[in-house]
Each structure stands twice: as structure tokens, then as C-alpha cells.
Amino acid sequence: MALVRLAHGSPGPSARENLDLVRAWAEAAAYDGAAVLVTPELFCAPDPTASGGALRARFAEIARTSGIALVASSPEHDAGARFVALSWWDRFGNLGGHVRKHRPGPAQLASGFSAWDGPPAAAALQGEGLEGGVICCADDVEIPEFAAFLEHSGAARALVSGSETTALLEFRNAHIPDSAYWNPMRTGVPFSQRGPLPQPLLRPLPRPYAGWFDARPPEPRDGS
Asked: Which residues, listed in sequence order, are joined to residue 77 by a DSSP beta bridge?
């Protein structure tokens, strides 16, 4: 697969300096020929009250101007609840996928983040060498049923974002029976998904979520 650059580190107290570091990582990775940069979870916004929409707009701009696909995390607000979100943008700054974290860590729960109880929608990566890849939060992929759901939905690998660290996980056929698959409480997915999804995730069809990206209106979907 294409070269993946995995970033590691603890965020500093300045949001601007954290964003500048992400840009420096992206520019260096692109210069070295990497196709995608994966950044640590909530590296630029550990505070759940931060503006997620404004931060996602900055991430899109970094991807576009650096010429590299970017996986980055941000807060997401929805009807009074706050979620840890993970998104990826292609090297042109176009949004490719967006997921919510199912199992926030104790510190995240204590600071006001909520757990998402919807389905583990795979945000399929696009681009030469990235086929079969998805994005995932580190705490979520440690749930065996969650990992099995992604694998049996067609995912071959996951770009994983965790606290202070990142990883590339190759799925190894977990052999978990169908009865142990992930059983979410809700249906549909919480974002306007772009690009192909594995067929099992298309039933039920994804519904647009109007509020996640507050920098622009959602795009309509046929048949939603």
C-alpha cells in the first residue's frame, strides 16, 4: 500500500502551535513521498467545547496546501451531546469520511464527551494503495466485535488514531462468529458519506446528518 506517515506526540497548550505542528508534519510527510498522514486523537482540540467545524476546515486546508491525505480528530456537537470525531481528507482537501468514537476513554468521558451508540460505519479510503483501508479510533478497534464487523465488511486495514500515538492495523481474520458481531443501538450513519462503502454498510442506506460540519451545509443524497 502507499506509504503511511504515523505522527506521535503530546499536544501543547497553544491550539495555534498544535495546528502549525500538524502542518509541519504534513509538509514533511508529503516531501518524503507519503500518501497519507495520521495524527493523534484530538491533538488540536482536547477541549470538548472547541469549535469542531472550524478545526475541520483548517484540516481540509492543510491537506489541500500540503498535497497529502490527512486523518485527524476533532470534537463534534450534536443536540447538546459532544462526540470524539475522526475524519479524513484527500490530498485535494476533499472530505472522504467521518466517524464518531464509540468508546471514549475515562478522561474523555470525564471532560464531557459522549459515547456514540450508532453503527461502526467504515470510512473507506480512496487512492492508489489505500484500497480496503478505513479510519478508526484506537479504543474502538480494541473491541473484538467492532474489529470483526469492519473486517467482515471488507476492510483490510485500519488507520488508527489514539491518544498521543497512531497505528496501522492489518486485519488478520478474527474468526468471530456472526452472533458476536457489533450490535449498535441506532441505524443509519451520523455523517454525509462520500465515496464507496462496503455493501453490508449500505443496509440501511445512510441518512444525511445535517449538523456535523458546521462550516457548510450538508450535501443531498439520492434516496435518503
From this structure: 82
User: Each residue of 145-162: pLDDT tens digit?
Assistant: 777 777 777 788 889 999
pLDDT of residue 120: 63
pTM of the model: 0.76
Q: Report d(CA 125, CA 133) in Å as an integer.
A: 5
For residues 125 and 44, what is the distance between their CA atoms, to the nearest angstrom?
Answer: 22
| Phi, psi torsion values for 95, nearest 5 degrees | -65, 130
3-state secondary structure of 28: helix
Q: Where are the extended beta strands (E) located within 50-180? A: 69-78, 81-89, 95-100, 133-137, 157-162, 165-170
Measured over the CA atoms of residue 140, residue 146, residue 149 and residue 154, the dihedral's sign is positive
Contact partners, residue 204, CB within 8 Å, separation at least 6: 187, 188
- 4-6 vs 95-100, strand pairing mode: unpaired
Q: Three-state DSSP class for 180?
A: helix
CATH 3.60.110.10 is right for the domain spanning 4-202: yes
